Amino acid sequence: MNAEKPSLSTFTTPLIPLPQGTTGSKSNLSDTMGKKYDRELSWKIASNLFLSFKYAWTGISYAFRTQRNFRIHTIIGTLAIGFGLFLHLTTIEVAIIGLTIGAVMTMELLNTAIESVVDLTVGQSYHDLARIAKDCAAAAVLISALVALFVGAILLLPPLINWINVTLLGV
């Protein structure tokens, strides 16, 4: 079960190749194949608010495309909000569910970022500190997901049970 780990270039956004004969500088990096790429723009602050949102959306869409758990959290979060609206929860209760879902998804994004930085740092080698960093980031997601489950159960189960009793059982 020693599957080959994909290279970093598999997960990065497309980079602009340098023109032929260009020598590398501080702002240029090489990938594992020795190709030179111009990363000058990656070190600059976004010049406007629109670009900041574009970069953030790129991160969200990357996580949705590549992280199974992020997709699962998105589906469950959408269902929880849908149940809250269907069961006519108060605005505050729906907001609490939304904030809890946001915390879980934020933790999942941070987990992805930490894992990516750790993988970038250690490459194909193993290091105990890398394992600890990745395990702790995953644990943060787990704790936030368990808290979200608890909050969802407290807020959704009583009205759901009441709806089942009234609508389906006629009690």
Order of helices and strands: EEEHHHH
The termini sit apart by 55 Å
Helix content: 55-70%
Task: Output the strand order for the largest sheet.
Answer: 1-3-2
Unreliable parts: 1-33
SS-based class: mainly alpha
Largest sheet: 3 strands, antiparallel
Strand fraction equals under 5%
- Annotation, overall tally of beta strands: 3
Number of separate helices: 4
Mean pLDDT across every amino acid position: 83
Principal-axes geometry comes out as elongated
CA radius of gyration is 22 Å
Output the keywords.
171 residues, mainly alpha, three-stranded antiparallel β-sheet
Structural account:
The chain has helices at residues 49-66, 68-86, 91-122, 128-168, and strands at 16-17, 28-30, 36-38. The chain is mostly helical. Strands 1-3-2 form a three-stranded antiparallel β-sheet, with no helix packed on it. β2 (28-30) and β3 (36-38) form a beta hairpin. It is elongated and about 65 Å long. The model is unreliable at 1-33 (pLDDT under 50).
Write the SSE topology.
Layout: E1 16-17, E2 28-30, E3 36-38, H1 49-66, H2 68-86, H3 91-122, H4 128-168
Antiparallel strand pairs: 1-3, 2-3
Helix pairs in contact: 2-3, 2-4, 3-4
What's this entry about, in short?
This protein has 171 residues and is mainly α. It has four helices and three strands; from the N terminus they run βββαααα.
